[in-house]
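Consider the following input, taken from an annotated entry for Protocatechuate 3,4-dioxygenase beta subunit (Rhodovulum marinum).
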Amino acid sequence: MDSGPFYPRDRGWHPPAYTPGYKTSMTRAPSRPLVALGSTLSEETGPVFGRDMLGPRDNDLVLNFTGEPALGERIIVHGRVLDENARAVPGVLIEIWQANAGGRYRHRNDGYLAPLDPNFGGCGRTVTGADGTYEFRTIRPGAYPWPNGVNDWRPMHIHFSVFGSGFGQRLITQMYFEGDPLIARCPIANTLAPEAREALVAPLDMHRAIPMDALAWRFDIVLRGRRQTFFENRAEGL
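Applying the prediction step yields:
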């Protein structure tokens, strides 16, 4: 079966490693030419995660930490994982982590003054179905300040981790929320070209909202090709 034409990668889609507006990039950016290292068989094939490793509440961040409901605006985040030809990618392990409704992570190094929610752990996971679909129920995360500039704030966002057929095939990105005015002010988001940044913004999806319960946002993830989602840890995609 013909898999279709090869899509050339647009190198301008990805930001430069050295971006002074994003302060920590100044120390993280490589100072020497990059060297490509081949992966081993173990990195490409294992370990593999299956549905039998998932619990019934793993994709429900509202309840999966203590069994009692977390505080905040309940939302649904859903979408599909697709290849460069818009074909579904089934059996993909997706993990997410995020701040709580007040903008604070459950992490010992998070010193933001917002309170911790005793019933919110802030992480979940699921596996895409045969049609590439996934879904999470969670709390809309709050914005929070960070020590980049004098008054820089991160917009509301959810971190996504996407695994391929093995642990070494992992992609990481962030999802933003449509209409958030802090996106345009964020030094991290602004390292991307406008088209790439827009691909990380999930639109409101009232068709999947639950009346009197939760709004919904749709976030599709494209692994390769000209419409690839930007992945912060591997710019070339899976």
